[in-house]
Design a protein that fits this description.
This protein is an alpha/beta fold and 320 residues long. The site of guanosine-5'-diphosphate (GDP) has 18 residues, from helix 6 and strand 7.
C-alpha cells in the first residue's frame, strides 16, 4: 500500500468503519474513495458495481453490514442475515470484477462454533454448531469468509478474512436492548446516574469473560492485516483484554460516575462462559493493541455523550 493508493472502506458508518476512516488519514493515506455520502448503498448490487467501475478502489476494507447484541439478533435475524449476505456478495463480486488489489473482510467471532475450545483458533471454524441466538447473522459471516476463500482458490484474489474479538468504541450502537455489553452498560449507567438511582442492574451473573478490542485498535489490526497478511487461513484479530462482565461493569460505573450499587440479574442470560481468540499469528507478526481498557471506555463514553447531543441515541441502528 502506498500513501496514494485508492482505499475504500465499505461500511464507513459502522464501528470499525468509522475507526478506519479516522485512522487511515492519520497514517498518511490521502486517496480514500467512497467516503460519507459518496459510499454506494452496499445492499444494491448495481450501485456497488458502478461505484467500483468508476472509482477503481485498490484496497478494500469490507466492514459493512448491520450487527448487534443478543437483543437485535433475536428480534431481527432475517434482516441481519439478508443485508450481510447481500453486502458481502455485492462487494466481493465488484472487487473481483474490477481488479481490486486486495480486500480485507471483517467477519465476526460468533461465526465460530459455540463449543469451540478457548482461546479460539481459526482451525475451529466449521467444526460444530453455532450459538442459536446469532446463528442467522453468523451464517452470513461464515458465508462471507467462505466466499473470500473461494475467490482466492478460483481466481487467485487476495481476499483475506479477519475475525475480531468483541469490539467496542465511540461509534457503537448504544441501544439499551440492541447493543453489546459495553455500550449498553454505558447507556444504562448514564441514565441511572441522571435519575439518581441507587442500583445499576447488569444482565447475568457477572462471571462470563470476554475478550474486548477497542475500535481504534481494531482499525489498526485491520490495516496491519491489509498491509502484511496474505495467508489462505483467516486471521484472528485480538490480543486485547480478557475481562469478566463484573469487571467491565465496575469500570463503566466508575467512568460514568455512577455512585450506587452494581447488581447482577441472574434471570437474564449469561451466554458463553468465556469468549476469547487465539491471536498468536497476528501478535507473532508484531501487532498488538495499544489502548488501555479504561481509557478506551472513557473515549467510548465521550462518543455516547456526543451521539446523545447530536443525533440522539435510538434503540436500534439497523440500517435495512
Ligand atoms: P456476546 O455474549 O459475547 O455475544 O455479547 P454481549 O456483548 O451481548 O454479551 C456479553 C455478556 O455481557 C453476556 O454475559 C451478557 O449477559 C452480559 N451483559 C450484561 N449486561 C448486558 C447488557 O446490558 N447488554 C448486553 N448485550 N449484555 C450484557
Amino acid at each position: 500500500m502506498r500513501a496514494t493508493s485508492r482505499v475504500f472502506v465499505a461500511g464507513g458508518d459502522t464501528l470499525a468503519g468509522a475507526a478506519l476512516l479516522d485512522l487511515l488519514p492519520d497514517e498518511g493515506f490521502v486517496n480514500l474513495v467512497g467516503v460519507g455520502g459518496d459510499e454506494p448503498e452496499l445492499t444494491d448490487a448495481l450501485a456497488v458495481n458502478s461505484f467500483f467501475a468508476s472509482e477503481r478502489p485498490e484496497f478494500v476494507f469490507l466492514v459493512g453490514g448491520p450487527s448487534g447484541g443478543i437483543g437485535l439478533n433475536r428480534a431481527r435475524p432475517a434482516d441481519l442475515m439478508l443485508a450481510n449476505l447481500q453486502i458481502t456478495t455485492n462487494v466481493l463480486d465488484a472487487a473481483h470484477r474490477h481488479g481490486a488489489t486486495k480486500l480485507l473482510y471483517l467477519a465476526s467471532s460468533c461465526a465460530y462454533p459455540r463449543e469451540a475450545p478457548q482461546p479460539i483458533r481459526v482451525e475451529s471454524l466449521g467444526t460444530g454448531p453455532l450459538e442459536p441466538t446469532s446463528a442467522a447473522y453468523a451464517t452470513a459471516k461464515l458465508a462471507g469468509a467462505t466466499l473470500c476463500d473461494a475467490y482466492r482458490r478460483q481466481y487467485g484474489c487476495r481476499f483475506v478474512t479477519g475475525f475480531p474479538a468483541n469490539p467496542f468504541g465511540p461509534h457503537d450502537d448504544f441501544g439499551a436492548d440492541s447493543g453489546h455489553v459495553i455500550p449498553a452498560l454505558i447507556r444504562r449507567a448514564h441514565e441511572a446516574t441522571e435519575r439518581g438511582d441507587s442500583v445499576l442492574s447488569v444482565w447475568g451473573t457477572g462471571a462470563p469473560r470476554r475478550e474486548f478490542l477497542f475500535s481504534r485498535d481494531l482499525a489498526s489490526a485491520c490495516l496491519f492485516a491489509q498491509r502484511w497478511y496474505d495467508g489462505d487461513a483467516p486471521l484472528n484479530l485480538g490480543g486485547g483484554t480478557v475481562l469478566s462482565i463484573a469487571e467491565v461493569a465496575r469500570v463503566v460505573a466508575d467512568v460514568v460516575g455512577f455512585r450506587g450499587r452494581v447488581m447482577f440479574d441472574a434471570t437474564k442470560p449469561d451466554g458463553a462462559p468465556l469468549k476469547a481468540l487465539d491471536s498468536s499469528v497476528l501478535v507473532g507478526m508484531g501487532w498488538k493493541p495499544t489502548t488501555a481498557f479504561r481509557a478506551a471506555v472513557e473515549e467510548t463514553y465521550h462518543g455516547f455523550l456526543h451521539q446523545l447531543a447530536t443525533e440522539g441515541v435510538t434503540d436500534e441502528r439497523l440500517a435495512v
